[in-house]
Design goal:
The protein folds into 3 domains: 7-92, Gyrase A, domain 2 (2-Layer Sandwich); 126-294 and 335-395, Rossmann fold (3-Layer(aba) Sandwich), CATH 3.40.50; 446-589, Isoleucyl-tRNA Synthetase, Domain 1. The protein contains 20 helices and 14 strands. It has helices at 7-23, 53-56, 60-74, 94-106, 137-155, 171-183, 197-221, 226-232, 234-247, 251-275, 285-301, 336-351, 365-377, 411-429, 437-457, 469-472, 480-497, 512-534, 537-557, 566-589; strands spanning 33-36, 45-48, 78-84, 87-92, 121-125, 159-166, 281-284, 306-307, 313-316, 324-328, 355-361, 386-391, 394-395, 465-466. The chain has a 5-stranded parallel β-sheet, sandwiched between helices. It has a 4-stranded antiparallel β-sheet with strand order 1-2-4-3. It has a 3-stranded antiparallel β-sheet with strand order 8-9-10. Strand 1 (33-36) and strand 2 (45-48) form a beta hairpin. The radius of gyration is 29 Å and the shape is globular. The protein starts with 6 loop residues before the first helix and ends in a 9-residue tail after the last helix. The relative contact order is 0.10.
Length: 598
């Protein structure tokens, strides 16, 4: 029984014939609703019969029985059926599942499509850090989502360009620069016992906020209102003046900016390497903000935009149900929106992309709604090809994080902490005693990072989430280490089996647990496709947990190397082999490595 197409398509095709032969009628495709059979019922696929009753003119049970009989008679893959009210549960034969197992094991990267097989070129922007602070837990979710989504889109055949836009200019950057200029005393990352460059700059960003609040508090005590005190703040006015000097190209300001940004870039690169994320191209706001400014001025000349009395430039979106949006300040300096207009135009021209995905937190929902509308007003036909992947915030049991106040969970510290916890737990289990120190450290890193990445990616991107480091690294439950351990268990089994695991032809009867596993294997391509359509790595993550959980039950309940005969052993080794392959490939899509031994 050759596997040349999906069994679902064959069933649907036969159902069309059944309706014609039995009732002399045809049905729209949307009336034929085929779904997975619920676990509490016997069967592999279920047809919802109710939408077909107008065609059959019979009650649900009679209609289901007639269709079930037809399918069993005309499809050798259908070995039986049962009817539960208006639901027809179809049982697929062991011979089909055995042929499918041979097919899946014979495929290179079953369920994945080679990048570039589709014509779509997709750009994914993620990370997008500011150069006034190190990466923190919120950035980790951003980076892991963007990187995983890029791999999932590639696995669906798209050509993907991974980009990072570094926000290296603006008032927030000037705050850390000014604080360093005032309080730094020449401290730098090369100084003895100093901290990593991005952490050093972040320290002075926090210092600015502390001094600014102290200044405002003093002014409030003098009788000023909050608004008056903030306007009167000498420190904030100095920061604004520094931004003006930067945009004017003041040599001293530019030199300080380059030095401090250089420290930050070195720090970022270390963190990206630890996280295992990468980019095809890095853009810098300092190179692109002027592009947007030129486009805005052109829109002003065309009358699409308007200038107010103070010289600022705005776009009116009230007709679209929104408000008016600032695009250029009265002093001529740009805002984030201006820069995003410029980079969008540049990227569509450079790469001829079909879609641009921005991986940015949900606090920026309004920003991207405005961006699309502004691009439409400016006449860009691709305005509707930009998509904001709006993800929820990451919180800790202690509450929200605030960069200005220094109450963030630093990315570097979190990664090191995860690896340390993995080391401690692995040493307690004592299963790595035979390995060298280098091998052990590599496995500790894989487990620690696997725990972190999986815990974050298993949550639907749209949802806020609570990150619990202790829960994430548990070797039981819905965690990365549990799935990694399952993979290592399978590889140990296959090593013991040796050549016995190389069979590609299977025969015999399958038990319920074996069929249940093969049904999951069969679903993998659909899961990968759905994850690409919805931009949700969580679909992959939770599928892998179900597969690992089901495999472990199978492993404990069914002898493999000690099976009753060679045919059964080969089949169970074949099932183990494809499950291991899917765990490895699925974890790759999440950016997670799987140890061969644990």
């Amino acid at each position: 029984m050759a596997i040349t197409g999906g069994i679902e398509e064959k069933i649907l095709s036969c159902l069309h014939n059944a309706l014609q032969d039995l009732y002399g009628k045809t049905a729209d495709a949307n009336l034929l609703q085929l779904q997975k059979t619920k676990k509490e019922f016997k069967g592999d696929f279920t047809l919802v019969v109710f939408p077909l009753l107008r065609i059959t003119s019979k009650n649900p049970e009679q209609s289901a029985n007639e269709l079930g009989q037809y399918l069993q008679l005309h499809m050798k893959e259908v070995s039986g059926y049962n009817v539960i009210k208006g639901f027809l549960n179809l049982e697929i034969s062991s011979s089909y599942w055995l042929d499918f197992l041979g097919y899946a094991n014979g495929q290179k990267n079953y369920g994945l499509t080679s990048p570039g097989e589709r014509t779509d070129k997709v750009m994914v922007e993620y990370s997008s850090p500011n150069t006034n602070k190190p990466l923190h837990l919120g950035h980790i979710r951003n980076n892991l989502l963007g990187f995983s989504i890029s791999r999932i889109l590639e696995a669906n055949g798209n050509s993907v360009v991974k980009v990072n836009l570094v926000n290296d200019r603006g008032i927030h950057i000037c705050k850390s620069m000014l604080a360093y200029q005032k309080f730094g005393n020449g401290e730098n990352p090369a100084s003895p016992e100093t901290i990593k460059g991005d952490h050093l700059v972040g320290k002075y960003y926090v210092k600015f906020d502390q001094e600014y609040k102290r200044e405002v508090t003093a002014l409030l005590k003098e009788g000023m209102t909050q608004e008056e005190a903030e306007k009167k703040s000498a420190l904030m006015n100095e920061a604004r003046e520094m931004l003006r000097k930067w945009e004017a190209g003041d040599p001293e300001t530019i030199a300080l900016w380059k030095m401090m940004n250089g420290w930050v870039y070195e720090g970022f690169d270390e963190t990206y390497k630890k996280l295992g994320v990468e980019f095809d191209r890095i853009y810098y706001e300092s190179d692109t903000y002027s592009l947007g400014k030129a486009i805005v001025l052109e829109g002003l000349e065309k009358g699409v935009l308007s200038r107010r009395d103070d010289g600022s430039v705005w776009v009116d979106l009230t007709a679209e149900g929104m408000d008016q949006k600032l695009l250029l300040r009265s002093d001529g300096t740009t805002v984030y929106m201006t820069q995003d207009i410029g980079t969008a135009q540049q990227r569509f021209e450079q790469y001829s992309i079909n879609k641009h995905i921005y991986v940015v937190g949900n606090e920026q929902n309004y920003h991207f709604q405005v961006l699309s509308l502004v691009l439409k007003k400016l006449g860009y036909e691709w305005y509707d090809k930009i998509f904001h992947l709006s993800y929820g915030m990451v919180e800790l049991p202690e509450g929200k994080m605030k960069s200005r106040e220094g109450t963030v969970v630093d990315a570097d510290d979190l990664v090191e902490g995860m690896i340390l916890t993995a080391r401690q737990m692995s040493e307690e289990l004592g299963k790595l005693s035979e390995y060298s120190d280098t091998e052990k450290e590599n496995i500790y890193c894989q487990i620690g990072l696997g725990a972190l990445k999986y815990f974050i990616l298993k949550v639907d991107p749209k949802k806020n989430m609570m990150f619990d480091p202790k829960e994430s690294i548990d070797f039981n439950g819905n965690t990365g280490p549990f799935i990694q351990y399952t993979y290592a268990r399978i590889q140990s089994l296959l090593r013991k089996a040796g050549e016995k695991a190389d069979s590609a032809e299977y025969s015999g009867d399958l038990n319920e647990k074996e069929i249940s596993l093969l049904r999951l294997v069969h679903e993998f391509p659909e899961v990968v496709s759905s994850a690409g359509d919805t931009l949700s790595p969580a679909l992959i993550a939770n599928y892998l947990f179900e597969l690992a959980k089901e495999y472990n039950q199978f492993y404990h309940e069914n002898p493999i190397l000690t099976a009753e005969d060679a045919t059964v052993m080969e089949t169970r080794l074949g099932i183990s082999k494809i499950c291991g392959e899917l765990i490895k490939n699925g974890m790759y899509l999440l950016g997670i490595e799987v140890p061969e031994r644990m």
